[in-house]
Amino acid sequence: MDTCYYCGLEIEMPFECNYCKDKFCSEHRLPENHRCVKLHLIRAKRFGEKKVIRGSGTGRQDNIFKKIIRKLKR
Ligand SMILES: [Zn+2]
Ligand SMILES: [Zn+2]
Questions:
Q1: Which residues are CB-neighbours of 27 under 8 A, at least 6 positions away?
Q2: Which of 2, 23, 27, 63 has the lowest CB atom count within 10 Å?
Q3: Distance 57 CA to ligand 1 centre (A)
């Protein structure tokens, strides 16, 4: 019997994280769900693949807010 590295739940068939190699329950097997120590590396990789280098995504939110404000003004 193994235990989830994140929540300590006992699991018969633990999921192993491909990145940090720790064992997790089905709920926490995804890097996002167990605050994987490699998460920032995974994200950096994903961003690199898509070539999205426009800040950290806050710019998009700003644009949405501006659009909403414009609509309200009309
Ligand atoms: Zn868990
Ligand atoms: Zn992990």
A1: 4, 7, 9, 33
A2: 63
A3: 29
